[in-house]
Design goal:
The chain is of the alpha/beta class and 192 residues long. It has a domain of 133 residues: Nucleotidyltransferase, domain 5, CATH 3.30.420. It contains six helices and five strands, in the order E-E-H-E-H-H-E-E-H-H-H.
Length: 192
């Protein structure tokens, strides 16, 4: 499935999670994998169960040359829009890597240049490139951890289950209880 080989020792893959959510941050991860990395179960995080993602995370982190993740929070998402916030989260994650990088493989079709490092945008890259798939798993699990944590403060919204995505129950909870400081005010929060 994930057939593309890594082209250099310091190629980073990057991806984000949470773009379509009504609450919580958008989270990105960046991962540098060794050239001989192979994890058969690794795939686009959306195609994996929650248990599979959490099982894969320590394996990815143990085998990665370097990895990092970063959040961009709702107040900034509302100021700069979700696309720019997603790209900013990827840039922050890349900045936090412990090694300099010489190439970036980006999931999706939009990215702003990062320093002077060449990059390639790959549509559905998390199903094609192992380093993007690894970043996808880390971004999703670290964002899920954050949402489970803030669920304790606002249990009415069931963030431990919906992770901030626009489920019917989440929208109904917003309609009943109003938005929280963790909601993205620039998004369509209430049911139509």
């Amino acid at each position: 499935m994930l057939i593309r080989q890594i082209t250099s020792k310091t190629e980073a893959g990057t991806d984000e999670a949470g773009r379509g959510c009504l609450a919580g941050p958008v989270t990105a991860a960046a991962v540098i994998l060794p050239a001989d990395f192979d994890l058969a179960e690794l795939n686009d995080s959306k195609k994996l169960s929650e248990k599979q993602r959490y099982d894969l995370r320590p394996q990815i982190e143990a085998k990665a040359i370097a990895f990092s993740y970063a959040h961009v929070f709702p107040d900034e998402i509302d100021q700069i829009n979700i696309l720019n916030a997603s790209i900013k989260a990827m840039h922050l994650a890349l900045t936090k890597l412990s090694l300099p990088i010489d190439f970036i493989a980006v999931d999706g079709n939009r990215f702003h240049p990062f320093e002077s490092v060449p990059h390639e945008c790959v549509i559905k890259g998390d199903g094609k490139y192992q380093n993007i798939a690894a970043a996808s798993v880390l971004a999703k699990t670290y964002r899920d951890d954050y949402m489970k944590n803030i669920h304790e403060k606002f249990p009415h919204y069931s963030w431990h289950q919906n992770k901030g995505y626009p489920t019917k129950d989440h929208r109904m909870a917003i309609a009943k209880n109003g938005p929280t400081p963790y909601h993205r005010k620039s998004f369509q929060l209430f049911p139509k």
